[in-house]
Amino acid sequence: MLPGSRRQVLTQSKPLKEFTAGARDIIPMMVGAGPFGVIYGTLVASGPLQLWHGQLMSLVVFAGSAQFIALGLIAGHASFAVIWATTFVVNLRHVLYSATLAPHVAHLPARWRWALGALLTDEVFAVAWEHYRNREPGTVGPHYFFGAGLAMYLNWQSWTVAGLLFGAAFPGLQSLGLDFAMVATFIAIVVPQLVALRYLAAAATAGTLAFLWQAWPYKLGLLGAVFAGVAVGVVLSAPRLRPRRARRSAEASR
């Protein structure tokens, strides 16, 4: 049972308004993902897979980086175990996303948590976290998160179709540098979060190590860089957490 104040907030929230706000706020990310989806569809059209295979992957996997990696491994005749393990490692960052958002969705029914988890991407995380970060956990319903996630999901499917349809007609489309749009999107995701020294240090650590370790097999360098960045952020945040906990304990004892 939720406390009275939380129950009131959830009751008074307007699902359609929240859903629309989420879909609206992720539009800039949708624009950045567009060229990325087109390039993916183009690569499918010029690769060993059937067109419907590429679309099915977007429908079921819904993870751009993992889909690109899987497509390259399939073209290289890699085994299923290698494809599965590599994409698994690349997507481990979603565990960090889930851990960050978990306190804000823990009060939701299982059906909502499963649905939101299926729609979680880098872009959706950035938008959802910005919405949740200044709100008390348990006071916000699922509709904003769902609106952002569903909008991005439909956007990715649409751009995949576009790439599949035009890939055969324009086989050199992937060489036009359209993938820079995704780089710009990730810059837009990361930079607004760098509001404190510990965030800057974590980002600098992860970015530097990802560059230095990029030759590691199966993208393990990326995973190691992520964990190193998280470790730096945790270490730098620890001294700030202790005074807050002490103040809360003192206030509670009063």
From TrEMBL:
Keywords: Cell membrane, Membrane, Transmembrane, Transmembrane helix, Transport. The keyword Cell membrane applies. It is a multi-pass membrane protein. The chain crosses the membrane at residues 26-44, 144-168, 180-200, 220-238. It is found in: Cell membrane. Belongs to the AzlC family. This is AzlC family ABC transporter permease. It comes from Paraburkholderia phenoliruptrix.
